[in-house]
Amino acid sequence: MEKLSIKTPDDFIALMGHSLGFWPQESLVCVLIDDHRIGGTLRVDLPRPGTNTDHFVDQIAHYVGKDREATGVVFGLFTRSPWTLGQRRPHEEFVETLTERLGEQGVIVRDGWLVGNATFTNYLRADTGAETSHPLDGVLSSELNAELVFRGSSVETTPSFRIPVLPRSDLSAEVLRHSFRIEAMNPRAAIVRARALWSKTLDATGEPTDDESAELIASLKFISVRDRLLADIPGLDDSMRDLLLGETQRPPHWQRVDRASDVLLHLYMRVDNADAAPVLTCLGIIQWWEGHGSKAHQCFQRTLESDPNYRLAQLTDQLVSAGILSTWATSRQTAYQPPHTRGPEIGGMGMA
Fold first, then answer.
1. Which domain holds residue 140?
2. Are 10 and 154 members of one domain?
3. Phi and psi at residue 251, in whole multiples of 5°?
4. Which residue, among 156, 131, 115, has the nearest Cα to 19 in the 3D structure?
5. Per-residue pLDDT tens for 21-45?
6. What's the pLDDT band for 180 if we cut at 50, 70, 90?
């Protein structure tokens, strides 16, 4: 397998942006490493001034501890807070407490950077009096950044999920017709028919026809059908509960999940606002499976604008707000990898 190596701090900071898909703000980003490879990337909001940081430390230590192979962490503390040489570093007490807690778990903080608007500084050596600031422009020209961009990766300025603002709502009559037909069917027969169409659509490469789109939109309006179609997305033969909560031992077929996201976005473009809630909720759950809490929250908020009482969106958004990740997102064996990073293995700093 081809290996990409991280040789400089610029490479590491570039990796943080590409792993998240956006440039973090007021965030602590932790990249897990072992002796040979890069593991998962975890982002949390920085605690606000005066906030008890115990919860933040517990949250990070909990998720780092889930990667049993991790022996070290490198971090980026992204903040617009002004800082000059000789001052206390931003969030110094928080970082020191976290470093101590991770050390108790056998995970060593190997390095870290204070990333500002235009420069970054080595956080761990920022109080030594040495000049360690570097321009962020170097991140854009780093070797790893160039390679990931070449492979199709991009870093957005915000963690926004690109949901079209104005869907084309021209399938309402067809959706209503299919809804009446499904309501008149035996529930088991309705699920079998919907699963067959869903499987055919996910196995294809093009867009579903208008009639197929209308039938899928109508099918997702029925809770039992919706849950079964959601559980079919990962392509695994496991219990529905474990699939919906992202708790299976085996990783999902992420390429199939990507295809499902594309299809659901297509359905959203054809759905009437009154029927948008199931489609948006499914998109949000996929984002949650992938560990993209901010994007999942945006989907659920858009869902609740369409239907304030849509229960599945309410419940899953509560998980996101509590900082709870799907089990898939907490293990390097099962975590989502963007298409451009599924091929090469990424080695640690200084490794060829």
1. 3-159+332-349
2. yes
3. -75, 150
4. 156
5. 888 889 999 988 887 677 778 888 8
6. very high
